[in-house]
Specification:
2 copies of one chain form a homodimer.
Chain A lengths: L5 H14 L5 H8 L3 H10 L5 H21 L5 E6 L3 E7 L14 H15 L4 E11 L8 E12 L2 E10 L2 E13 L1
Antiparallel strand pairs in A: 1-2, 2-4, 3-6, 4-5, 5-6
Chain A binds a DNA duplex (30 and 30 nucleotides) through α3.
DNA sequence: AAATTCTTTAATACCAGGTACTAAAATAAA
DNA sequence: TTTATTTTAGTACCTGGTATTAAAGAATTT
């Protein structure tokens, strides 16, 4: 338990807390080999809040995001859902989804439908799309019905690979591979 | 402050907590118009943990996800970054990024490069891609250098629209519009 | 109406993980 | 050696609880 200088210790302390905000002062004191008072002083000097406040901040962080995602409207009608396996959703392209000039559906609606479906498959309270590899095959026009079919193709811990194919009648207009993360 | 029955109150209680896990027993007691003891009894009967445990759970939830994202390797070399505005990254396509048969780079590497860059632009600790609208213009071959340029094109609260264009020499091989969420 | 049972409230002792403050001891610098 | 800095100790107090015992109130049954 060699004791490096004050500034070094404080740097260590912030790094420890950055890596793991769940550490109590007591645990930090043990790790750093100093008294709990020193830890508290250091935290005060670095203006790092106490454990509970840190947790609250982290929790509020996710909560804000989750709420903002919840607000985002659900795109498409869910017509079949086998949680954890597959699902089907239908989107009828309405005027407000299209670009006025071309009467072509804005791509993000098509994407959003697929994304919503992909996320919905995951059997968890909150799921977020981490990355997605998608392609638009042809434009979709106002009035067309887009049928999206999705299934979970792989899973590794809390990561899911969901594949989605969207069709208008028999024509595939969109395909996507979504990497979705499950939270909680 | 009319008092509905016990089961009704308990249902209310769980719903309140589902909507806002940050409520203390005291606040719940006021909301429900009963004593704090009743709230605690109800929580116990519904096996809902105390505030601090709830926060910890939420915090651990996000933390798991953030860590899993952090683990995901950074794709591309960041060669220029103006935080909150724009950035440039270069990816040299190596053998392990390509499909053996075709020597074509796997699309997700191209996507990942753009996605990493998009997320890096955001001036916050943690940023997650919510949705993305992307297109691959032509295959990229082993040995080619992909230069991705990104800029923030819109912002609304914690949501950012980041546009990314990736080129090999003068040819655009990828374009993407990312909706990125800032956390905390 | 009286007895019984369920439900709610009260009261108290205790805990973790702190804050805020005062003071003394140890160490480093002059 | 003296002075200043740094570290440790100790105490009182806080929030948001747990755990337990007891009593008051309300609804049901007899």
């Amino acid at each position: 338990m060699t004791r490096p200088g004050k500034s070094k210790r404080q740097e260590l302390l912030s790094r420890y807390l950055e890596g793991n905000p769940f550490l109590t002062d007591d645990e930090l004191a043990h790790i750093l080999g100093v008294s709990i008072q020193t830890v508290r002083l250091d935290r005060w000097r670095l203006s790092i809040p106490e454990l509970r406040e840190r947790l609250k901040e982290v929790a509020q962080g996710i909560y804000g995001q989750v709420k903002s995602l919840e607000k985002d409207e659900w795109i498409g009608k869910l017509i079949d859902l086998e949680l954890g396996r597959s699902g089907v959703s239908i989107l009828e392209v309405s005027e407000e989804m299209t670009l006025k000039r071309t009467r072509v559906a804005r791509g993000d609606y098509i994407f959003a439908q697929a994304n919503c479906l992909a996320v919905a498959l995951i059997d968890t309270k909150v799921a977020l799309t981490g990355t997605a590899r998608i392609s638009f095959r042809r434009p979709v026009y106002c009035g067309e019905k887009v049928v999206a079919r999705a299934f979970i193709s792989r899973r590794k811990e809390n990561k899911y690979v969901v594949r989605v194919a969207s069709k208008v009648q028999d024509e595939t207009i969109f395909q996507g591979k979504f990497l979705v993360f499950a939270i909680a």
